Amino acid sequence: MVSFSPSAFDAFLTEDDDTPVIMLNLIRFQPDGGRDRYLEYLKMAEPILARFGAKILFGGDGLPVLTTGEARAWDAMALVQYPRRAAFKAMVDDPDYQAAFQVGQSAIADIVLQPFKRFASLT
């Protein structure tokens, strides 16, 4: 089940909202057709993302991990750019997105969502 950490989500939303953020999605699919349902979710989500000024920068299937240590292999990943943190919050609260996400949630066995912002020196 996908759920937000309330404290992390609140902290994310209260920080400066003046630059775009990239959301890293690391995904492990349900074994019973999860990948296909996730692709269906992406098709449903793309026009909703666009309404909030967001876009999928990359999505793809995972390959074997090349490093040693505690690395875990993921089935897939997606990078989604949001113009502001508030756009992410507004999208998550949107009824159309909530409906689409029911499909996505049924596809996911495990997920990590981690937002990133650009290095100040690269802007």
Automatic annotation (TrEMBL):
<feature type="domain" description="DUF1330">
    <location>
        <begin position="36"/>
        <end position="107"/>
    </location>
</feature>
<protein>
    <recommendedName>
        <fullName>DUF1330 domain-containing protein</fullName>
    </recommendedName>
</protein>
<dbReference type="Pfam" id="PF07045">
    <property type="entry name" value="DUF1330"/>
</dbReference>
<dbReference type="InterPro" id="IPR011008">
    <property type="entry name" value="Dimeric_a/b-barrel"/>
</dbReference>
<dbReference type="InterPro" id="IPR010753">
    <property type="entry name" value="DUF1330"/>
</dbReference>
